[in-house]
Amino acid sequence: MEITIALVGFGNVGQALARLVDAKNPALRENYGLNISITGVSTGRHGCAIDSYGVDISRMLEAIEQTGSVSGMHSGKPIIDTPDFIRRVPAEIIVETMPLNPESGQPALDYLRLALHHKRHIVTANKGPVAFAYQELKSLARQHNCAFLFESTVMDGTPIFNLVRATLPLIDIQRVRGILNSTTNSILSRMETGMSFENALQEMQQAGIAETNPSYDVDGWDAAVKITILANVFMHARLTPHDVNRTGIGALTVDDVQAALRAGQVIKLVCEARYEHGAVTASVKPVALPVSDPLAQVRGTENIVSLETDMISRITISEGEAGPTATAYGCLVDIINIARGYR
Amino acid sequence: MEITIALVGFGNVGQALARLVDAKNPALRENYGLNISITGVSTGRHGCAIDSYGVDISRMLEAIEQTGSVSGMHSGKPIIDTPDFIRRVPAEIIVETMPLNPESGQPALDYLRLALHHKRHIVTANKGPVAFAYQELKSLARQHNCAFLFESTVMDGTPIFNLVRATLPLIDIQRVRGILNSTTNSILSRMETGMSFENALQEMQQAGIAETNPSYDVDGWDAAVKITILANVFMHARLTPHDVNRTGIGALTVDDVQAALRAGQVIKLVCEARYEHGAVTASVKPVALPVSDPLAQVRGTENIVSLETDMISRITISEGEAGPTATAYGCLVDIINIARGYR
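YS: structure for the whole thing
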């Protein structure tokens, strides 16, 4: 079976996915009788290309490295813009890995709507559209008999949505807690050793983990976007990130962090969603956790989610250090699930 | 869709499963169009019953509580023994939850073989048969187009086998580490506070967690049985528990445990399977872990497994305190998977 995909967004994750598809196609054929073919790529600043026979992946990666553009691989009528690309690319699945606009999910959200209206399955690694329009995209997908999958939006490729969907049938999730922002967690780990907030942040920026404008991480917005997705998907909430009760780590001092340590606690930026008076409320805030809490020992860029349920008291899943390959793997799993019939 | 199951073994887990089926059948019908019917129960010391119309679960639980036997619910020719029960019970799935014989997996292993020869799907919560005959049962099941599932054998109902099978396609697991024995982990947690090994063990026995003969836990045999299953299922090994390089916790003193703590380490009974010179080797032994290791903070009866893979550096999953309901839930998930077509 041949499955055709088009990539919208071709940064680190998009390129890692192309590499992964190239490397894993033999195993996919052997294990699932499946061959993935990339029939189009639409990038932000490196042009677009459609090839209905499937692009040569190594040639395309070479082209972007040497010429900075994939446009040379396009044949046929020029592509005007991303909507034009989505309408024309002969692909069953649109895989969207654009940079995040955390305030609105745009323009990715509009692209995903367009793809669904054209009866394409969608896979996204982009938190924005899922945080702002999960219910809408889900019903739009259902209406067009299409899949809408987003495993990589939280914890990279570590399975959290698939864990619940595929391995925990009938389960009732009563509370979700997590540590989901690498920058703030790394800053707090450094502050435990006595480093100031400012120096810790600077180190994270130099390492390329924190953004030049760090407020998105430091003020808890990124974490709020993620807990919104978990609350909406796992607890049937209808929140947006604006509904999350949010406190960042900017007011914490080294003294606060070290005093907690002396008291046998660890301060973490904890995301939480739970039922309260019959509704789901979500929060992001610094919490002093006892060291015995499974969330307490997550260091640096590791992420963790803990689920409290009716049938298993607590299930916790965490990931080690992750890069673009892990995120791309999450997209690949979504593609395989669609190819195997999941809607 | 109606699916018929027969329970072989009706202790805590078997009874919890019966209760769960009773409680969850409405949700099963609504979500999966599925109704589970228990057409037979075979117990160790409380009789047997077959009812091809499906037993009344609350009446059966009442009967065992009041009369100590389910035999009063049987109609038709008397049932001679468990093999006779397996041959005659009109059930698509045999769910085996007998007590473990850790040295050989018998007699459960023979019962599972018999069930497969009679073309019944098998679900087991019993580690023995899986540790001693995974490959054999797997090919026997394949030969008869039957399923052979065992989610509850490791970490109760917390999904570990389903995690890998259903959410991590194509992944290459290079190393498995875990803390999988509740008794020894609880003893070590108590020794950290200064309690002697003997007193800690006694507390565990009084709490009903450790056996009267504790050597099965303390000498690492239970952990060896579990790492054997993980190595065979995840790494294509062909080990038996006798192949595991095994050291128990009997030689550890409070001084050892507390000296490690002072050095920023935690002593745990760690199970491990990894590739070495092209083959899989497995071990169970006390290891002083740095506190930053995800395995280090697992307390008391909690269990944890950490997978190192080619595409995601490390995925760790853990369970909180678990009882028979969690184990029964793992069996229920296996039943649902079989009903939905998994072989």
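YS: worth flagging: The radius of gyration of chain B is 21 Å.
IM: good catch. Also Residues 97 and 171 of chain B are 30 Å apart (CA to CA).
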